Structure of Signal peptidase I:
Amino acid sequence: MAKKKSEWLDWLKALLIATVLVYIVRTFLFTPIVVEGPSMQPNLHNGDHMIVNKINYALSEPDRFDIVIFHATERRDYIKRVIGLPGETVDVKDDTLYINGKQVEEPFLQEKKDSLAPDETYTVDFSMSDIPGNVDVIPPEHVLVLGDNRGNSTDSRMIGLISYDQIVGSASFIYWPLSHFGLVND
């Protein structure tokens, strides 16, 4: 009888330790998320299941073209791509991205841009003056984010700049569906 009781206590301890470890990993290190909507197409798709790396930005700041998850509202997280960093200006003219007045290539959009008719543009022109918040330069600890599906994305052009405090983490890899399985391409 004492042996059975000891065995149950061992199982209970193991279960408790496993529960605490899962809580720590999900809260502080990694968490799953599902892409909702078409705003990151053609690179991420509605229903893609991904792992969010929460420790990246505890150790470093976001880089240009990182795919980040951030709190857009109290109840809603968005997935977007970092385009502008603190101290920079961002403009798009004639479907070309300019950072501080210098042209910057967006290789993750090139295939989509190449498929457009000659008179079509993928990204509507905008400048810093069009971003909510009335700033000329991205302030410290903020980023400008855009969806890869520029014609169908609620991003910094509508909601303004994103503070580092809003960022949950970066997209690490897709685990479902299996046809999309792999690392998220920056």
